[in-house]
Amino acid sequence: ETGVTQTPRHLVMGMTNKKSLKCEQHLGHNAMYWYKQSAKKPLELMFVYSLEERVENNSVPSRFSPECPNSSHLFLHLHTLQPEDSALYLCASSQENAGNSPLHFGNGTRLTVT
Amino acid sequence: AQSVTQLGSHVSVSEGALVLLRCNYSSSVPPYLFWYVQYPNQGLQLLLKYTTGATLVKGINGFEAEFKKSETSFHLTKPSAHMSDAAEYFCAVSDLESGGSNYKLTFGKGTLLTVNP
Fold first, then answer.
1. Phi/psi of residue A3, each to 5°?
2. Do B44 and A103 touch (CB under 8 A)?
3. pLDDT by residue (tens digit) across B46-86?
């Protein structure tokens, strides 16, 4: 298996639920990212991990909690979400957290909060 | 701070016609520039990138883009559109954060390309 794989592809959850999104990359990259994609808005960077260390947290609410146990896996733990959190959540990886390294994206998890 | 402006949230062309998707950016230093494409129900895929060297860069699927420093532009073109080109296209700019040593990647809002038979 190659590339960046995200599971699940679709997730519906209530505001009181706890769920997790999973991302796995098979590219040997050192940096991993979570992005939020909402309609009519630019992609929003949520978190960046470089060599398993969180290097950026863009003022994301604490109801989103990332975890990077190793350089190939990235999780996004969700709890007590709001309806406005409904969006496509994209995971990406890059060779390194450098300006000229292109991102490789997974196909995303479509999250609906009811 | 930087911004990325993609003129036209929706562009419609006929099959076989020229595709031109516009991207302008604001940056105080020469940035790295990227175009990504997103097909329905998929993530973003790199089309092409400019880092250094030749300002006309060629990408996958017959697309190319030219970095024009004086115009702060990186427009995407393809001579002849194909039905399979229908997708959303995102311009992205990476440059150093003001006063820092970290690069920041900023995406445009995207341009939806439709191709009519």
1. 85, -155
2. yes
3. 999 999 889 999 999 999 999 999 999 999 999 999 999 99
